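Page 42, continued from yesterday. The earlier attempt failed because a stray header line got pasted into the input along with the sequence. Redoing it now with the clean sequence only.
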Amino acid sequence: SKPIRLASKSIRCRELLRRVLAHSPVFQGILCFSAGEAAHLARHGFDDLVVAYPTVDAHDIVEVCVEVAKGAKICLMVDDAEQLIPLTRIAAEHQVELELAIDLDMSTRFPGLHFGVHRSPVHDVPAALALADAIVRSPGLRLVGLMGYEAQIAGLQDHAPGQRLKSGVVRALKLRSERELRARRGAVVRALAERGHTLRFVNGGGTG
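This time it went through. Structure tokens are written below.
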């Protein structure tokens, strides 16, 4: 029942992206590798574009603003309030409003073990609220989404050949991690809603 956002860094052909998007309404929008790529895809008629990684590259942000001014729906990713400074400045120069999503860290911290990747410093409710509030205080920026990439679940094999013991440990860690991140992600979404932030989407990473 969940919509699937295609990842353009995995499908590197515009015609294949069009074919998949036209195949079923379950496929909705594209998760882009870079802001420059999102602007490129917008110029070729694609819409509902979310950039997967934060950027402060002025050239790419300008390209995004140009396409947004034409009506494209492009959402940029952020994980630190410092990134809002160039976004605010360039949005003002081009007289546009930029949509943003927060990249939520979805690793699990077990005692003595960091299970997952070091992707984002936004790990919990207070950090997410602080960044969301900073976005609200930034003219020309609007929070519309939240993304969390569950790398340790999507990217680790459950049954590694010849590694029965290790595979068992990985499966056990995955189960515990999934329960923890489901609760933490839900808590962040609820906290943002209670603070008055309206999210258009919550995006999970990988196929799990």
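Notes: The longest strand covers residues 141-149.
Reminder to self: strip header lines before submitting.
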